[in-house]
TrEMBL record:
Protein name: Ribosomal RNA large subunit methyltransferase E
Entry-linked Pfam families: FtsJ
GO MF annotations, alphabetized: rRNA (uridine-2'-O-)-methyltransferase activity
This protein's encoding gene: rlmE
Taxon lineage: Bacteria, Pseudomonadati, Pseudomonadota, Alphaproteobacteria, Sphingomonadales
Domain Ribosomal RNA methyltransferase FtsJ: 43-217
EC number: 2.1.1.166
Protein's organism: Edaphosphingomonas laterariae
């Protein structure tokens, strides 16, 4: 590794067993101010600052007492919640193993597993104030397919949020360029009082990710009374 360029930018020499793409990725990591800041401040990933910036804009963590973190690995978002709301109950889930975080319950399982929503609700022990989702499907390199797979996770997260959120709660989810599709936005607007899209500064400019922020959960609609109920 060598240091060069203006402003002390670090450059990485291409190693024998390292591809040019890997070299570029490593160089970007070494020169990313968010990566350096995360290391200095004890966060597991630069993604922590995406939530910090979204919270600064939308006040997501104000007054929350129960939070669910979908796609918790490596744990940066839950670290932010833990730091800003130390007494909040936090439950996270991910297919990948996640090192323990003090005060956070972590389930290693697939969120799309039929038993996952019930497990999450049980561990949380009450209605959630906030459901966070930084989940994204593994990409296959085909933009349309990648978009559909990620949006399926967003839709599943929305359905789950509608089951566990208390009135006034919020749902935040990663989407790809173009944001949530028309049908999902319509569903979110039916469930929440405000629905917005945002790209926090910590999200790399060349990244296709955006976030949908749905706030003011209206509560589940009561079923229509049957004839026997009305009699």
């Amino acid at each position: 590794m060598s240091r060069g360029g203006s402003g002390g930018r670090q450059r990485v020499k291409t190693a024998r067993n390292r591809s040019a793409a890997s070299t570029r990725w490593l160089e970007r990591q070494l020169n990313d101010p968010y990566v350096r800041r995360a290391k200095a401040e004890g966060y597991r990933s630069r993604a922590a600052y995406k939530l910090i910036e979204l919270d600064e804009r939308f006040h997501l963590l104000k007054g929350v007492s129960r939070v669910i973190d979908l796609g918790i690995a490596p744990g940066g978002w839950s670290q932010v919640v833990r730091k800003k709301v130390p007494k909040a109950a936090i439950v996270g889930i991910d297919l990948l193993p996640v090192d323990p975080i003090d005060g956070v319950t972590i389930l290693q399982m697939d969120f799309m597993d039929d038993t996952a929503p019930e497990r999450l609700a049980e561990e949380l022990g009450g209605q959630a104030d906030l459901v966070l989702s930084d989940m994204a499907a593994n990409t296959v390199g085909h933009p349309q397919t990648d978009h559909l797979r990620t949006m399926a996770l967003v839709e599943a997260g929305c359905a789950f949020a509608a089951d566990v959120l208390k009135p006034g709660g919020a749902y935040v989810a990663k989407v790809l360029a173009g944001g949530a599709d028309h049908d999902l936005v319509a569903e979110l607007k039916r469930l929440f009082t405000t629905v917005k899209h945002a790209k926090p500064p910590a999200s790399r400019k060349d990244s296709s990710e955006w976030y949908v922020i749905a706030q003011g959960f209206k509560g589940r609609a009561k079923p229509e009374p049957t004839n026997s109920d009305a009699s």
